[in-house]
Write a structure and sequence with these properties.
It is built from four helices and no strands. It is mainly alpha-helical. α1 (about 15-40) runs antiparallel to α4, α2 (about 40-70) packs antiparallel against α3 and α3 runs antiparallel to α4 (about 100-120).
Length: about 130
């Protein structure tokens, strides 16, 4: 009879946590976008969420750099994170300019891309 212990679940990395935070922030933005139509405080919550989402996108870039440089990981997440920060910047500009015909589809795209990034397995470090 073998008494092997089950493998210990690995803790999430800083990059995974930053990606999850970004994904949650974008989901919050979708929820508060609906509140814009139905309540007086929707605009306030959406504005706060926009700042959090943008900060989460910057944190994602930082986490990607830190995962690559000292950890010896792949530099590819830096490209993803930087591209996402560009999309977030465009999203902010479109929101301020009140261009919902572009702002809403870009938000949906960003949520999908963030979910895709969240579902990626981290590459093993050598």
């Amino acid at each position: 009879m073998s008494t092997q212990t089950p493998p210990i679940a690995s803790r999430p990395t800083f990059l995974q946590v930053a990606t999850a935070l970004q994904t949650l922030a974008i989901f919050f933005q979708a929820a508060t976008a609906g509140l814009l139509l139905s309540s007086s405080y929707g605009e306030l919550l959406h504005g706060i969420g926009a700042r959090v989402m943008y900060g989460a996108s910057m944190l994602y870039v930082l986490a990607a750099i830190l995962a690559w440089r000292p950890g010896g990981g792949s530099p590819r997440p830096i490209l993803y994170a930087s591209g996402f920060l560009v999309l977030a910047s465009v999203q902010v500009v479109l929101g301020i300019a009140h261009k919902p015909a572009l702002h809403v589809p870009l938000g949906v795209l960003m949520f999908g891309l963030s979910l895709l990034a969240l579902s990626r397995r981290p590459s093993p470090t050598p």
